[in-house]
Amino acid sequence: VYSSVYYTFQNSETILGFPAPAPEFCANHDSSDGSVCSRSDLFAFQVASGLAFLIMGGFGFFYWHIKGVHLTSVPQTAAGRCFGYIPEAEFVAVVCFTFQVWDFIISLGIPEHRTPIMLMHHTLAAAVSLAGLHCQYLLWYSFYFFGLSEVSSIFLVFMDLSKFFPPQSETAFGAFIEGYCGPMFAVTFLFYRGFMWWRITYLKFKDCRSILRSGQAEKLRPGKTWVLYVLMGFNIPMGMLQIYWSSLILTEIKKIVTGEA
Question: What is the pTM of this model?
Fold first, then answer.
């Protein structure tokens, strides 16, 4: 998807009717040879990412809120949530790992996306999903960490598109961004990543502590208990990122409410 969009619109003045890229994203473009700054790399990245987020967030929402698979697939015990095999959760984890590896590699070639904080995020997310898949640990938690937590990212894709390809406020795209995507991104992020992240993290730590103290971890996954410590350890920096991003959103909301925006 990325390659087809990138090369198709590489020299186009507009991409599918979207506005031209903002000047700051074309600052390093040399137009002396008559080439056009389309920034099809940014557009292709958002399209490919949007599809991945739609799969992860969509299936996570469906399995959790509609089918309730997290309540019926395994016993609602520490051992059930930590060791239970759930095909639906494994699917979400596989998609997450694949996307994070792709995202890391592609981001290295796009200046706007190869920031240290995002590369760290991709590395941690890929490592956590791979460890869980390889050792068959904590698949129950995949519904949330690799699924529901990406619901807000679906709206973020459109927000980023509007940043790279800024629309006029009176256009349909501009109204869609300001009137729908912006509020929905703020609400879903603050709920799923701001509030729910720590609720699920607490349950995860509690479950891991239970199976480690009871000896079930070593009994059912001999020699792999260290993975639990790694997975819990990675949760801390990832959680700090959620707090940081939530603070940025709350700051923007405050500006809108007080009229500073």
Answer: 0.90
DSSP letters spanning 47-74: HHHHHHHHHHHHHHHIIIIIS-HHHHSS
Nearest-angstrom CA–CA distance, 146 and 123: 14
Distance of alpha carbon 241 from alpha carbon 69, whole angstroms: 28
Token match 């979207």: residue? Answer: 18
123-143 per-position pLDDT tens digit: 988 998 998 898 889 999 999
CB-CB neighbours of 4 under 10 Å: 11
The full length of the chain comes to 261
In whole angstroms, what is the distance from residue 85 CA to residue 111 CA?
A: 40
CA nearest neighbour of 137 among 69, 48, 204: 204
User: Are residues 92 and 140 in contact, defined by beta-carbon separation less than 8 angstroms?
Assistant: no
Tell me the CA distances in angstroms from 52 to 139, 157, 250, one per residue in order: 19, 11, 26
How many whole angstroms separate alpha carbon 46 and alpha carbon 123? 19
DSSP letter, residue 18? P
Write the CA distances from 169 to 87, 159, 181, integer angstroms: 44, 13, 14
